[in-house]
Fold these 3 entries.
Entry 1:
Amino acid sequence: MTQGSPTSTASNGQQPSPVRSIRLQLWLPLTLALVGLLTILTLSYLEHQHYQQELRRFTEHTAHRQLLETRRAVETALRRSDGSGLDAVLSELGLHPTVHFAALVDDAGKVLAATRFAWKHQHASDVIPDYPQALPTEHVTLDLQLDTLHLRTLSPIAIPLQTGQIRSHRQGTLLIDYDLTSLAASAAQHTYKQILLFGSLSILAVLVLLLLGWRFMLRPIRALQATIATIGQGQLDITAPLKGEGELMELSDALVQTAGALRSSQAALARSEAQLRQLSDASQEAIFFHHAGTILQVNRTAQELLGYSASELVGRNIFDLVTPDYRPAIERRAASGVQGIWEVAFYHRDGSQIIAEVNARQHLVDGQPVRVIAARDIRPRLAAEAKIRQLAHFDALTGLPNRRQLLDYVTAELQQVQEQPGRRAALAALNLDNFKAINDSLGMAVGDAALQSLAKRLSSTLPQHQTLARIHGDTFALFITQLSGSLEAASAQAGRSIEAVLGTIAQPLQVRGHTLHLSAGAGVVMIPNDSKDPPELLREAETAMHQSKAAGDNRVRFFAHALQEAASARLQLRNDLKTALHIAPPAPQELLLHYQPQMNAQGQLHGVEALVRWQHPSRGLIPPGAFIAEAESSGLIVPLGNWVLQEAAQALRRWQDAHAWAQPLSMAINVSPRQFREPDFVDRVRTTLEQLGLNDLSLELELTESVVADNLAATLEKMQQLRQYGVRFALDDFGTGYSSLSYLKRLPIDTLKIDRSFVIDIDAPANEEGKRPAVLIEAIITMAHQLNMQVLAEGVETPAQRDYLRRAHCDIFQGYFFSKPLPEGALCAWVNSIPASVTQ
Ligand code: C2E
Ligand code: CA
Ligand code: CA
């Protein structure tokens, strides 16, 4: 038995050629019986040969000798004159058991003497059976007939004749006939004895062999079979099935070793399976494995998510757990093997719906497609997003829609107006007169309370189709829809509504024991109008409002007259900006950059944000808010942005060459959507980096949600290209747009800049739910960290805000509390004073 060969060929990856096997139980006894039979047959054949030899020997020796002796004795008896003794010779011969008969016949055929007296003097052919016609003359004839077991010996014999004196002799024949049956019988008996002896010996041998075969072959094989079956059932804790030695024992040892090896590999498998299960149970995602819908496996989070135990889930159809509105799409994707991330609503055991984001992957297991579904409950995130949106769009103090929300309404209305000709609306801006005086004399708290009660009073008297919003400070907006008729009619109707509101404002207001007499000025713009841009419309309404206030007549001013004026002012600004951008470098620069520090939580300088300023020859230093919008709409933002990029990068290079603190500094640069969309933007950034030899990660581009929302695929591609050059990205003004975090998380954004309006909320009073709206900041920070983004808070002005943000694990801080944006020289001086002024 070659124990090693099957395993070694198997491990070579070759199939061992099959070896023939037979059923020992059948073939062992059969073979033994056959051997026994063959032995007996051989034996009988040999015995038969021997018997024939015996006969031949009898014929050639015994019978021949007897014939010759008898002839001599007969001749002796015949020589005696009276021939006495002849009968005695033959009688004696008759005593031999094998002699059938014997006779002496003379030449005339007469029997002279015979073993049977009755034949004497009879004619031989009458009495002697088969008496031959031709008789031998000189030879002894032996005629053995084996079939009748007859032997006849014939010999010529001279019979003396005494006729008177003359002695002559005549020819006689001596015949002895043997019946060999008795000899055959004894031989047969001998054979029979032999066969009996050998037959019994063979049967005994067969039995012994069978016993041995059963005891030492079949029984061990049975035991091995039983052990193999036990192993087959997965029970690997076996004892050696055999004792002793031999090939089967080697097989038994091999079996025990195999079981041992299997046991340890099974234990290893169980260990790794347990680890895998722990790992998957530890996952915050619910994991399902399913094949064609049938759930194969789930982790603990999946059980917790749906409220079922693992045994209830396994075997169930996963599609039955999906709500009908998602089910067809999910089934389709599963059937076509699509992989990806999407949203699904599951039914919880209690019937409630769980909205989850699932990541579906497909693998082949044993040739079958198995889908791995990782689901994450996004209800908290959706709720937080809804809350963020709510707070981002409603004013925390008065609960009125804020500027953002108002602009949404206007956008929606513009859409309607476009679709329904003849539909008209009006947008009014209202600003309280001398409100600053109330804040200054009675305190901010009274000012806030006055705004709150005024808002309440105005909202309660507001008719249908009119919306009041608080744009900022003491400026409100009234949005009137569903106006109809000619422009004049609609304007008159709007004017009346606004005057009614002004009338309500003019009614005395009781606030904390003070009676306030308020008044306001209003400007209004009609929709449709030349302008299709909601912020532009609001600006126009405000322009008209400022004119009304300047006139001081408390009348409602319509924008129409101001239109031309403002347009020409914008034109002027645009031309000036164009000139500013085309001034050759050696000439005095009108554009310049200020840099605002960004601090980390340890109070160290993390980076700076480059903010553009315009040193206008006649109007003085203009903040970006006054010209960026115009630059955007005229396209001048592209050369402007390019200049900022170049200038900011050069500044960083200068500082890094001169100051140790600038080595790890990050330079944040604002990029407008239009600039980002320029085809050569990526190349421009790359050449700037290469020319200046700036380190990786030293530039951080600030994008707004509008860039991102515009064309996700193209934006993503550009961002990925830029990332290869070590450029990082920040999302500016987060919270003011609509993009959900789940949408943004597909983009490689490093930093989330929480908009200043959220930071202001930190100091705001608790709202009616008793919650500080600032808790939202915590939600944003937590979510951003989950998405691997760091969070920067903008517009940090007070220590309270800084402390709150620090507790909420905000990473980076920027705002007047640390420093206003500074020109280059002032910044370097400020950096040297940090330890004393800021860190504590
Ligand atoms: P932004 O990107 O959100 O920049 C922050 C603005 O908030 C800056 O105004 C900054 O001076 C101001 N700020 C910083 N800390 C505080 C604070 O504690 N309190 C208050 N009240 N304000 C603070 P700035 O410089 O007037 O810039 C206004 C906007 O103009 C920027 O908003 C940005 O959107 C745009 N802008 C500025 N420079 C560039 C530029 O180079 N390219 C482009 N495309 N846009 C620019
Ligand atoms: Ca910015
Ligand atoms: Ca910002």
Entry 2:
Amino acid sequence: MNVLSSLLAALQSGRVEVIDLTQPLGPETPVIDLPPQFAASPGVSIDTLSEFDDRGPAWYWNTIRMGEHTGTHFDAPIHWITGKDLKQNACDTIPASRFIGPACVLDASREAAEDADFLVTPDWIATWEERHGRIATGAWVLLRTDWSKRTGTEFTNADETGPHSPGFHPDASRFLAQERDILGVGAETIGTDAGQAGGFDPPFSNHNIMHGAGKFGLASLCNLDKLPPTGAIVIAAPLKLVRGSGSPLRVLALAPV
Ligand code: MN
């Protein structure tokens, strides 16, 4: 059997499972809250064009409007000033082969439960690699925090000092971007940066460092607790938006059962 018929047989027999890492996308989807001097991203709005009525007697369809970075979404390098002049840096120009890669799931759910501002450090990653092996070439590095199980104000988790949610220390972003050959990082939080990262050096350090290195981001993922630390494959292909800085997408993992 060739590799694709083996995969198909495994999918059909249930030895390989398809796990949906995507949150529902609709008017209730939370959007990032930026300081008031910056442009706000609108939430999702959906307007019905017709629903089996005078406007279209046999068909139902809608228009959709939202920011590119809404719900479970992809960040392209062109999203950030550090990545704006790189080649093949937008949703329509990134080679499609770069949307598929092995998953390395960093489980920081215990740490995030104890400290909402928990940051993954290079030492923390070194401990992960001692247990699970070196982060694979072309990996999607997915940070499990169980943040996707939160809703409403628990998800945003903001107080007078801003949002509090876990993420990557700048040194960890630098290590992953420069010392490992990854596609990018994914997070369960509203963006790939920690809640307090607006005050880091550089501000929004994970965006700054990852996109400057031509790497991608995946935000608002869920079901990372259903993935093994290694061994799954993630497919995360954004809409082919012309010069798109990002896009909502369906993120799927193929995982051994
Ligand atoms: Mn984004």
Entry 3:
Amino acid sequence: MSDYFLGLDSSTQSLTGLIIDFGLGKIIRNYNINFDKELPHYNAQNGVIISDDDKVVHSYPLMWVEALEKLFEQLVRDDIQIEEIKAISGSGQQHGTVYLNQTFEEILQNLNPNESLVKQLEGIFSRATSPIWMDSSTFKQCQEIRESLGGMKATINITGSNTFERFSGPQIRKFFQEKPDAYEKTLIIHLVSSFMASILLGKNAPIDHGDGAGMNLMNIKTKQWDKRALEATAPNLINKLPPLVNSYDVIGKISPFFVKKYGFSADTQLISWSGDNPNSLIGVGLIQKGKVALSLGTSDTYFGYIKNLSLDLNGEGHVFGAPTGDYMSLICYKNGSFARENIKNSFNLDWNQFSEVLKKTPPGNHGKIILPYFQPEIVPLVLKSGIHRFGVEENDLHGNVRAIIESQFLSMRLHSEWIGESPKEIYATGGGSINRDILQVAADIFNSKIRQFDVPDSAALGAALRAAKSYYDLKASKVSWQDITETFLDIQKSTLIEPNRKYKALYDDMVNLYRACEDHILREGENPESIQKQFIEKYFSS
Ligand code: XUL
């Protein structure tokens, strides 16, 4: 007999399912349902639907459910011992909101196992699409909420973040303002995480403190819905939100529908779902202060565990709840993998060729810099897309390849200064982290060691590990976070990438050059030409 745990990750482009065997200390299966490839009838591109001006970005919640159905069908086809799965938890792309009508719970409670899940759920939405984290169309609502709360600092002190275009509160306000009738008919608003958890639970699931913190609605200190924030957002909102719980809470058992249809045990415990970044925090083993993670995916994020609340009063960073019950700090970039792919594809390269070019070009890249706003950016706030090149022509293959990678990490280094600690070791995760050459550039720019694990999907792994931890806590068997993360994240098997210390001074100067380029484009700062010239003379004159 084995103790299996299932971690699911409903992300922007796909649904991942990862099964761990706790006794063996191993991942035994890994499934991935890519939305574009396997559910092409939704006509989404990279899992999303984008408006012409790039600002409105939505997705189909029904597509996420259909992916879940497909994933479970695969488990059955593969003869997985589904009845041995003791607990399930999950991860969702953060901030996205799902709007349900009055039929939702009734339909969930009366699902017929002889019919398809997705067919039965077609009528549950009061809004067919969900705004997701890539949406940047709520500038006005952000301003309004921020002002009602007493300005940026007050907003950060209350909710843990400034108002952000993609956060759920501003998105809910926009829906209320633009579609008041549909808002009225909305019985409950879920996050992606709590929506997916509700499907498995057969009734409305709560929102956890990790994902709840990304809404501009939860009080970051009391971890309750904040009355002022709710009132600043939309009327009667308190009655449309599920309750908040700890990320480690057991929220119930799997609904009978899944027991009958796929053979889950009726005792399968469900653990609260959380956002993908809080899940990744566990999935890379960040349960102590001092280490940070770099996640290179559809979004690039840079985050760390913090024991005590510490806020970014400049307004670029966020504080979310950590799955351990503590906190985490985070900054998020929208121009992550799409920006890298854009440059790669524009020169018709594959990833090996891209890496070869990267290795051949010198650190510092002759002072060439790109501000890569292929889409509106979150950090720094850029609402209009546009690529700004400094000293690099559009057709310069070598210059562009190194500039996109260096610029991404220079920006990350610059904008993560508020976190306070310069990292001694960075844990890398996400699809992009399998590329060692990209990580070498990050190691040099941060002047830090980087550890690369062999599981890039840390959000799904984090969810599986959270399921195990809460399950054993429920059974009163003492298993610590440390035992769990050490078993599944074998440091011995990871690859360590050492920084080239000789580039420290060069990158210290290059961050300043990058800042000058940003100031010029975004804050009417001087043309950075002279700083760029000095940089080139200092490092590339011979
Ligand atoms: C974090 C954020 C993104 C999404 C991606 O604040 O917006 O990392 O969670 O799924």
